[in-house]
């Protein structure tokens, strides 16, 4: 509908009852309705008003007018016509552009004016995160665009700004996916939208819908042919929704400029409708105020022109008259049936909006909002009703929660590591106490001590890995990595060094005495430790550990779905972890392979007290199996289950360390218990008082002829050695276990 107000004739007279000149007029107000298809004049109503009173009563089309007649409104309001136009229903935001429509005015607030009401509602409930959903029509597009700008100005984050043409399904699904809780909407397909809201379960205490729609006739409790929902389901989807609409009539009890109260105007209009073929309309109050706005502006214009120019002699579309009329329209202010009427510089009216809520099956007016104010004005005894008794929140409140190792896991792993340390000290006590026994002495007790020290460091690393949360510092991260790295080198470096000595002395072919003392082997271990130190120092200085927060998978609160538990933990991070771990893994891998090679080379040496090749093979086998099984598991569970990652890591370290300790020392303890503490070890080969004597003897036995060993001669010599061993054993028994050194 378009309300086109034109003054065809005005009369000025000197009132006999007053001494001063008072303008009065009769204005013919033409109310025209057009269809866009024909632009045909359907009806002209002429109402004559006397004594400064202008009244307008007419029928309007339904809410569709704002779409059917918008092009006609734009044509009549353009600059080139220079015709003043006052509309009671055209709400498009484009009409506020004065560079295009300088002579367009309206008593109905622009739809974009409702944006301040949306903002006021958001501030009332402390919503700072909203989504905007609108139908793709010019009226709604301009309003939604303006609303997004208003939200930005007021610090409200718009997480989604989406539109639909006829089917809102995809947009509703998107809002569900991004967990939009508060949605501002502009659309006409209200029933279909409520159906999709119901289907996607976007209703209830979690969600707050605030919409503006011109849709009428019970859209919240009906169904349509193309809507696959029952009326009950549509009503369920719309339950609790807030509706922002115009304040069609003021609730004030004061008289308006016409002398009638808004309530009296309402009853008077209804009576006239019943006596005529005119249909009722929600825009009647805005049309009535529009007529009064024009009448009062014409009065002031007539005063400005008098006595030189009569109002009825002004040419239609005359620019000076239009400018003067524009000035008076903008400066006019009065109390109308829709509240105070005052236009701004854009020819728009701020107006008042009413907020209603669907309670049960009907909307109930709760409060109003004057666009010029910041707060809502609640009606007496009215308040919003929310499911659960509280208003929905704009997001799940994130409660950060520091996740640490459970007490049971912490104590269990630390207890196991402590037991391992106790076991290591037990073996250390055994090794020191029996270091002069041939069995222990031949196995290099000093290197055995280094093995035990390495195992203790590995156990300590497990305890260090157990500290997390606020106890986790960058220094702790560096310490536990270095502890585990050095512990590994001590253990396997000692085993490999011992095996290397056996390999060396059993492969000599010179008669010259070859002695490889423990000091030499400590030097080998020192070189390995030096390599560790170089890598770790470069790591620490070039790319040090940093403590960082790592968020785990969010957890919903089953009792309150508005609360989202956000667990986090502290982790040790470096920028190039793959480089440093690659260096360590490569270096340790080469060490393991070298140990396997030495174990294979010395597999035929039949002196259990001397040869640890079998021990090394078993230890390396255990470590490799643990790495193959443990590393993928730790990598897989590390991101989501840090506790499981620690358990797997700790068990791998405990198992490999404990198995290595037991493989090295349990056979020695069993052998001493079997043959007695003071009894000579009953080996299948000859005995030696020291490893130096063994090396010298081996050197001499390894040389024969011109560096060529004859197998038959060697067999004979071995038989002679066996006879000599038996004789020496007899002498040993007679001498009460004194040490005997044999020279061949």
Offer a quick outline of the entry.
With 744 residues, the chain is of the alpha/beta class.
Write the layout of secondary structure elements.
Elements: H1 65-68, H2 70-76, E1 85-87, E2 104-106, H3 114-124, E3 129-135, H4 138-153, E4 157-164, H5 169-177, E5 182-186, H6 190-199, E6 208-212, H7 231-238, E7 242-246, H8 262-274, H9 284-305, H10 319-331, E8 333-336, E9 339-342, E10 352-359, E11 362-370, E12 377-378, E13 397-402, H11 407-433, H12 438-441, H13 445-466, H14 474-505, H15 518-542, E14 546-551, E15 555-556, E16 563-573, H16 577-601, H17 613-637, H18 642-675, H19 691-701, H20 711-734
Parallel strand pairs: 1-2, 3-4, 3-5, 5-6, 6-7, 13-16
Antiparallel strand pairs: 7-10, 8-9, 10-11, 11-12, 14-16, 15-16
Helix pairs in contact: 3-4, 6-7, 9-10, 11-13, 11-18, 13-14, 13-18, 14-15, 14-16, 16-17, 17-18
